[in-house]
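Archive entry. Fields below.
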Amino acid sequence: MRTFRAFLLLALVGGGTTLRAQDISTRLAGRVSPEVAALVQRLATSAAARGLPVDPLIQKAIEGGAKGVPADRIAAAVRALAGQLDVAAAALTRAGPTHPDTDAIAAGAFALNAGLNDTNVTTLARVSGPRHTEAATLRVAGTLAAMGVPAAQTVELVTQVIEAGGESADVLALPGQVSEGVSHGRGVTPAQAAAGLARAAAARANAPGQQKPKPPHP
Amino acid sequence: MTDFHPQVKQLLDGELTLADLPAALRPEGVEALRLLAAVDREPVALPSTLDARVLAAVRARAARPSLWRRFLAPREIRVRLRPWTLVPALAAAAALVLFLSSPARTPTASTVTVRFVLFAPDAQQVSLAGTFNQWDPAATPLVRTGSPGVWSATLILPAGQHQYAFVVDGARWVADPGAPAVDDGFGRRNSVLSL
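PREDICTED_STRUCTURE:
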């Protein structure tokens, strides 16, 4: 019976690995050259072994193929993304005791691509604490950076909102609020709109009776 | 549907005879009996072997219970509680309660309706390609709106982050001018949508 269970476990694990490899090649078939598909296969296998998300790599290759990008440039872009995923994973690992989940790592890589650095990612992951998902916080921060809010100001704004007791919905609303501030104010830049929101959040945090949540990872 | 007098109903039930009815109700009673007679009341003759066949089928099922029936069959279970076995069970229950009561780390799956709009007065066709449709330029065409040069498409997308671009005339990839954008790694820009 014990032998049968071991065999079953091996069959499941082996089957899963085979399925994943087949899945990647199926998704890439006809979309990229065989050379790029083989590269993505290797990078994805290696990434999965390190606990990194695989889907962004496949998506990047598919995107390059759809845009008619030459194979060597697709390969370079997929390699660069794999590097960003590694940097994001390391930054998130520095933030807390648990291994980051793949969603958070993908969001961290996006934030890096949008203009944040690894220290920013670590800071935002620490600020997230148990009340906010790291992935959502990093996606919002990346979106703010993509809107043109400087990295330091992005971190400041998200931190102020969370430390003022803001809920997940408050954090998710930030890009829309910055956009609104830019479109309503005359000549207001994203940085200025973000600064205004950060000041308002700080004022709320310092208001009498406002309990300031302690950061989970000092 | 005919609603007979209560006494006529008693007649139909066999509680009264036609003679028991008052004279005024007898025509109604006759009519009711006529209607009843119109119904086929011929007795059903059951085959003499029916009982034996039914019992044989019941015995056959009882002799070969299916796996499912055996699983569902009531049985006596004796539970003997030993105090030390309760400790891991209570710990598991406490862990389950803590797990269920802890704040959610993963957002719940939900969808959002999004309208994409592009002003492209010279375009012959416009489509949308992104992470949500495997970057397939043929998957999501935009349609002309009532306003000249304005193209739009409305999609239901899962919450989360999406990157996309408009594809004009099947060849020109254009970032959404109304959305933030990031480097796509190929020298162009991808628009970003966070839901």
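CURATOR_NOTE: Chain B touches chain A through 26 residues (CB under 8 Å).
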